[in-house]
Amino acid sequence: MDYTLKKFQKFSDNRGDLIVFLKKGELEDAFKTFGQIYFVTFNKNGIVRANHYHKEWHEWFGIVAGRLQVVLEDVKTKERKEFILDAKKDFYVRLEVAPGIAHAFKSLTKYAALVNYADSEWYSKDSIPYKLL
Q: What is the mean pLDDT of the chain?
């Protein structure tokens, strides 16, 4: 299945945390043109977002607040992975999701938020509904 979880160090002090989300040098040449950055929020426990896959979009997600259950499934092979993203961990995790990987996020806290970088601007024909949660 084409996804990656990468751990990063948090730089913390009495003011909070500083976390580098994504560096240009970490991107393959095909992804070095700017797409878009957006935020996704979950306003209560149990909210489910996404439940789709993309034919072309490549995405990098980072949890900013709260805890999320993540479900991924390769739409061709049906291989499935489930795990938790937690903003309170001692390290930061970035999730990279390739085209053809269905993804869904379920809030496990009263509030949660994701930041996302995508390699191109969103267009509706690239989002294919795919129920996971």
A: 91
